[in-house]
Amino acid sequence: MPDQHPLSHWPRPPGGYAPPQAREVTASYRRWTGVLTWTAIVVAALMAVMLVMSIVFLVWADQDTRNAAYGYLALVLWVGIAAGAPVLIGVAVTARDMRRRVREQPR
């Protein structure tokens, strides 16, 4: 039996290689595209507000030694910004890719 070829475990398309075809863009996919887009916008706006508030807290903490706790609040906000940055990047990149796919797909 050495002249027999072993069967392949992977099915092969007839006629050779064919690039994978993208699935159809559904209404649910369009809805999630909008949700992720608005999530990225809201997270970016919250991070901008956190940055402004941290600067305000630092100014208040610098004005009077009795308001030194505001400096610690500014540090807490900076930690929140640092933790939110990867989330913002992940959501924004995913939303951008989904929006591009929705725009390229005819309805």
Blueprint of the fold:
Blueprint (H helix, E strand, L loop, with lengths): L26 H37 L5 H36 L3
Helix pairs in contact: 1-2
Descriptive notes:
It is a single chain. The protein is mainly α and 107 residues long. It contains 2 helices and no strands. Helix 1 runs antiparallel to helix 2. It is elongated and about 85 Å long. The model has no long low-confidence stretch (mean pLDDT 87).
Mean pLDDT: 87
Q: Distance between termini?
A: 55 Å
Strand content: under 5%
- Bulk shape: elongated
Determine the structural class based on helices, strands and strand pairing. mainly alpha
**What Rg, in angstroms, do the CA atoms define?**
26 Å
Low-confidence stretches: none
The biggest beta sheet, please? none
Summed up, the helix count is 2
Total number of beta strands: 0
Give helix % range: 55-70%
> Helices and strands, in N-to-C order?
HH
Quick take:
The protein is mostly helical and 107 residues long.
Q: Which descriptors would you attach to this protein?
A:
107 residues, mainly alpha, elongated
